[in-house]
Amino acid sequence: MLDEVNAQCPVARALEVLGDRWAMMILRDAFDGLCRFSAFQKNLGLAKNILASRLKLLVESGLLQLQPASDGSAYKEYVLTDKGRSVFPIVVGLRQWGERFQFEPGETRSALLDKATGQVVETLQVRAQDGRVLRPEDCQRKVVRQR
């Protein structure tokens, strides 16, 4: 539960759902096409009880939905919702930060490629509405009421 100050902060609210390592790794795998409990469990090596609780949170938060398997089997699949797909830039931003700062030169890593061109995805940047690249010192936080 968020305190009064953090309740007004979109970052704090987002972290209530996305702030767990396993939630982000599950979403990463969902972006890569995984959709079954067993596939997530095998890929992540995560204990079943922890995986079940994280998947439940992601479903309750509206990022994934549980639906019948696309192959007609008795299994269920976890499918990204529009809300879940909107997390993609966050995952890409984390990936790009990790690529830049968390690997030694020459160390093996995965890369995110554009399927259409085979090229590495361009580095994300925060831009003003007029297209200028913004740095942290170019921005300010302000509490506003939505209509």
Mean pLDDT: 94
Sheet with most strands: strand arrangement: 1-2
- Classify the beta-strand content into a percent band: 5-15%
Structural class: mainly alpha
Topology as H/E string?
Answer: HHHHHEEHH
- Low-confidence segments: none
Coarse shape = globular
Radius of gyration: 18 Å
Helical amount: 40-55%
* End-to-end gap: 25 Å
Main sheet?
2 strands, antiparallel
Structure annotation, total helices: 7
Beta strand count:
2
Short description:
The chain is mainly alpha-helical and 147 residues long.
Descriptive report:
- With 147 residues, the protein is mainly alpha-helical.
- The chain has seven helices and two strands.
- It has helices at residues 4-7, 10-18, 21-31, 37-44, 48-60, 82-85, 88-101, and strands spanning 64-68, 76-80.
- Strands 1-2 form a two-stranded antiparallel ribbon.
- A hairpin with a 7-residue loop joins strand 1 and strand 2.
- The longest helix is centred in the middle third of the chain and has 14 residues, at 88-101.
- The mean pLDDT is 94.
